[in-house]
Amino acid sequence: MTDYVRGLQHEPTLKPERPFFSSGPTAKFPGWSLDKLKTESLGRSHRSALGKARLKYAIDLSRELLGIPDDYLVGIMPASDTGAIEAAMWSMLDPARPVTVAAWESFGNVWIQDAVKQLKLPNLQVMTADYGEIPDLTTIPQRNDVVFTWNGTTSGAMIPNTDWLEPGREGITINDATSAIFAQEMDWAKLDATTYSWQKVMGSEAQHGMLILSPKAVERIESYDPAWPLPKLFRMKKGNKINAGIFAGETINTPSMLATEDYIAALEWAKSIGGRKALVERANANSKIVKDWIEATPWLRNMVADPAKQTNTGVCMVFQGEWYDSLSADEQAAVPKKIVKLLEERNIGYDFNGYRDAPPSLRIWCGSTVEQEDIKRLLPWIEWAYEKVKNG
């Protein structure tokens, strides 16, 4: 990009006003402050009329903003996205049925380990790909249950479409959408169990997950009793029926009402700026700035080569070039750490190092709560820090 000076030898002058570029928990929405949160529910039982009403309001606002069909259930689950997706897997996957678990980054590989080592599914197809790639999903049989991650949180690789899922397919689909939802449109008709956490695109406090179930998913839960023990936090049935209370604000265990109020404030902010469409547009605009800069920076490349698979949230970039390639593996791993340290010390940008299991990289969160101007101000600083690291 011609807007940026190459090979900066001097510190840039402008600093991001909000130096928060972590991929989770992510930046709070613009204008956030504690006094924006309603506090009447704090210190009250979550089983009180007020507590349940606020939890139900969070569910209803989520449904409205995401355009979730009326006949789908939406519930608040314990233990963030991990708790929500594991509850779905442990309650819905049947050893008698063929199952495919597809992964192309760290968290998807955790769901593979659940299927292989914990559930020990005998009719299991595992599909994996290296960081920056996605396996050939079109080869998955339509009768198979499928577990997949819509957007690779630690690789920046997202599915470009859902064409590989046929309408009315026999198997159920379990979709970990935590780094995608609110920034990318969900194809609800093809999704049976979708999960996410509050601390990603909405920038809210963590430890609570969301579980969205289609009628087909509800039918599976009600008709299937797993052979393995189900921890209380995963139990979604009362007798032989779905526990409707979970999807009306009656959570399985005690939620944080402060975190709930924080999530509600973020949802109300999103609604005030134009809802889901505005959130997607903000993430697209933010990520375009970073992707264009990567293309114009000779010592960087997007971890994901195919533009159609490049995320608009946690954009991941790896290093290249003669100098970097000449370094040992340990020296290469140190480069992004040194860059991040230099900028964190100056309060320029926080927590934008690549994920610990990923190749040495930088990962800039471009989700909807981040401002374009802050991203524009961060990038010249990264160039400056790179030159400083390179030249010792």
UniProtKB/TrEMBL annotation:
It comes from the Bacteria. It catalyses: O-phospho-L-serine + 2-oxoglutarate = 3-phosphooxypyruvate + L-glutamate. The keyword Cytoplasm applies. GO terms for molecular function: O-phospho-L-serine:2-oxoglutarate aminotransferase activity. It is an enzyme of class 2 (transferase). Pathway: Amino-acid biosynthesis; L-serine biosynthesis; L-serine from 3-phospho-D-glycerate: step 2/3. Its EC number is 2.6.1.52. Keywords: Amino-acid biosynthesis, Aminotransferase, Cytoplasm, Pyridoxal phosphate, Serine biosynthesis, Transferase. The keyword ATP-binding does not apply. Its cofactor is pyridoxal 5'-phosphate. InterPro entries: Pser_aminoTfrase, Pser_aminoTfrase_methanosarc, PyrdxlP-dep_Trfase, PyrdxlP-dep_Trfase_major, PyrdxlP-dep_Trfase_small. Gene3D superfamilies: Aspartate Aminotransferase, domain 1, Type I PLP-dependent aspartate aminotransferase-like (Major domain). Belongs to the class-V pyridoxal-phosphate-dependent aminotransferase family. SerC subfamily. This is phosphoserine transaminase.
